[in-house]
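Listing S7. Sequence submitted for prediction.
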Amino acid sequence: QVQLVESGGGLVQAGGSLRLSCAASGGTFRSYTVAWFRQAPGKEREFIAAIKMGNTYYGDSVKGRFTISRDNGKATSYLQMNSLKPEDTAVYYCAASATIITSQIRRSESYYNWGPGTQVTVSS
C-alpha cells in the first residue's frame, strides 16, 4: 500500500503557472499508475491526467496546458500547470493504483490510494 502526499498548491493569477508534487512512500512507486484528479465545490471529481508505463493521458479540459511526469528515483509525480484559468480552481488530488487497465484509467473508482489533496485557487 502506497501513501501519497500532495504539495505545491496555492493562489495564482489567471495565466500563471504552478507545479504540484505528489510524494509517495511505502510501496514500489515505479510499478504504480499515477493520476491527478480535481474537485471543485459542488462538482464531481474530474480526471486531469495519468501516467502509466511512460504513457500519458489527459482530460480534455487541460490538454495542452498541463503536463504530468514522474521521477521514480524520487518516488514523486509532478503536475505542471500552465495558462491557468479561474475554472481550474479546485482541490487537486493525487491517486495511484498498482493494477489498472488503460480503458479505466480516467475513472476515480479505479484508484485505491489517494492523497489528502492540495488547494489551487486561480484569481481572475
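Caption to Listing S7: primary sequence and predicted C-alpha cells for the chain studied. The CA atoms of residues 59 and 84 lie 15 Å apart. The two ends are 40 Å apart (CA to CA).
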